[in-house]
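Hello Y.,

Per our agreement to keep a running log of every chain we model this quarter, I'm adding this entry. I've kept the format consistent with earlier entries: sequence first, then predicted structure.
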Amino acid sequence: MNQDDLEKDLNEIIAESRRLLGDVEEMDKPELVEMLNNSERPAEAVRQVAFSVFENLLREYRLRGEHPPQRYIDLVTQLRPAQNLSHNQDTLVKQAKKWVADLLAGSAGGTETSLQFAFHHRAELTDADRRILEEAEAEVSRKMKRKK
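Predicted structure for the entry above:
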């Protein structure tokens, strides 16, 4: 793919995201997490709304007789709830193969699990950052113990 194609794709993604989501101010991860926490909506509700928005977008493309961009097909596949099966045969086949592969892979976790954190372009952690990370790790550990 040459530079002109990449720039065209980028401009298309920007235009589509503005159409779908409006003009969104730039946020870093902590600001986004704070906004979602303050919205008092669970992550599952946010995921379901995103799934509906992009599923409708795919439907619009198909009703116009156009092939939707692969990035949107992939996004809808990733956001689709397990109980909400696709009407697209290719997506159904992919999902079935993924389920079989997951079943054959066996248990993903061992007897001991540790939470890993990745920080990108961050300064030193503050005490508040460390406290948040410790609380998150403790919550994940509690949830994992309840599932066993």
